[in-house]
């Protein structure tokens, strides 16, 4: 029956990230493949989840409080006017929010621009929707955006640009000038911007996250996706969201409901507690990750890895193998 599988399913290959994670589990090795922390989730967030389970909040559920808090946060942090009743969709993690956004926007043959290197899931979602990923290379070693390359990547078939900042896997935070160039191109070509902002609270060295939706002409065409996962160290809870204008959010919501119905109920309840965490929590999170970044960069450098770009955000370090390394990066893993 294998020959009867769909054409698209046969083009998808196993995730190298997942393969390395499973190998690390089997061998009891330290897992550096996946973007999750090596420390516990905040006690007040865990306690909120336990309380929700004990209160029997375990059935299909939509927790409007998440939407209300996200709208308030978007207004406070970015000056965005978000209607919590119509513009926010709670999903099973950022991954589902992103996939649903792609499925809502992309038709067969539509082109979607991705900044390369890119998180592997983006390409798969675009392919599943029948779209065509088009890669716009970021220039190493500082992963700068070449605006000329960006503009030449647009065609009459371009439907969306995917923007992930802070960036996986380079640790780049897109500058305001780069964001303005992307925003100008999106407005000129009349296309969507679909963002992945899961690392918005993890930036270093006075870098500040800017959501492209805040730039002129962009809120009406931007889908912001994010999640609880990275900010609160609960990557296994699968609580994420999409924020978009009402008509776009409605399409995303319909797709979400048809695929998964609702995100895990007790963890939605815990999200309400998490999203009300005091400013000191976010300051501590940033400081902890910045110290870990500095340690990892120093440690890898001392082992002979060349790190030309010190990460500005996220939880990733792009390191070149030493010249005397005898194996490939795959064999070395």
TrEMBL record:
Keywords, ordered alphabetically: Aminotransferase, Pyridoxal phosphate, Transferase
Domain of life: Eukaryota
Leader peptide range in chain numbering: none
Pfam families per UniProt: Aminotran_1_2
The keyword Transferase is assigned to this record: yes
Keyword 4Fe-4S: no
Cellular component annotations (GO), alphabetically ordered: cytoplasm
Entries under PANTHER family matching the protein: AMINOTRANSFERASE, CLASSES I AND II FAMILY PROTEIN, EXPRESSED, FI04487P
Family of the protein in this entry: Belongs to the class-I pyridoxal-phosphate-dependent aminotransferase family.
Protein name: Kynurenine--oxoglutarate transaminase-like isoform X5
Source organism of the structure: Phoenix dactylifera
Gene that encodes the chain: LOC103720030
């Amino acid at each position: 029956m294998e020959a009867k599988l769909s054409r698209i399913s046969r083009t998808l290959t196993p995730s190298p990230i997942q393969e390395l994670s499973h190998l690390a589990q089997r061998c009891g090795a330290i897992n550096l493949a996946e973007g999750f922390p090596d420390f516990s989730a905040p006690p007040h967030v865990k306690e909120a989840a336990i309380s929700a389970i004990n209160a029997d909040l375990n059935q299909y559920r939509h927790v409007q409080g998440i939407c209300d808090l996200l709208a308030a946060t978007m207004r406070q942090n970015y000056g965005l006017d978000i209607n919590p009743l119509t513009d926010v969709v709670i999903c099973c993690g950022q991954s589902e929010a992103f996939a649903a956004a792609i499925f809502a926007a992309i038709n067969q043959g539509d082109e979607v621009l991705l900044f390369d290197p890119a998180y592997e899931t983006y390409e798969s979602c675009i392919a599943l929707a029948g779209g065509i990923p088009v890669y716009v290379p970021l220039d190493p070693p500082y992963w700068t955006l070449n605006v000329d390359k960006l503009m030449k990547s647009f065609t009459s078939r371009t439907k969306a640009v995917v923007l992930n900042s802070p960036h996986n896997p380079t640790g780049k935070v897109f500058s305001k000038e780069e964001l303005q160039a992307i925003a100008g191109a999106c407005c000129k070509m009349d296309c969507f911007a679909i963002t992945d902002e899961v690392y918005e609270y993890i930036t270093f060295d006075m870098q500040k996250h800017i959501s492209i939706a805040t730039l002129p002409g962009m809120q009406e065409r931007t889908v912001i996706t994010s999640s609880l996962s990275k900010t609160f160290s609960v990557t296994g809870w699968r609580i994420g969201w999409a924020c978009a204008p009402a008509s776009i959010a409605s399409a995303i919501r319909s797709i979400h409901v048809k695929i998964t119905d609702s995100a895990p109920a007790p963890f939605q309840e815990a999200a309400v507690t998490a999203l009300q965490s005091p400013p000191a929590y976010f300051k501590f999170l940033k400081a902890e990750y910045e110290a870990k970044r500095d340690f990892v960069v120093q440690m890898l450098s001392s082992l002979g890895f060349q790190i030309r770009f010190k990460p500005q955000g996220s939880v990733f370090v792009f390191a070149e193998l030493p010249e005397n390394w005898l194996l490939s990066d795959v064999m070395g893993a």
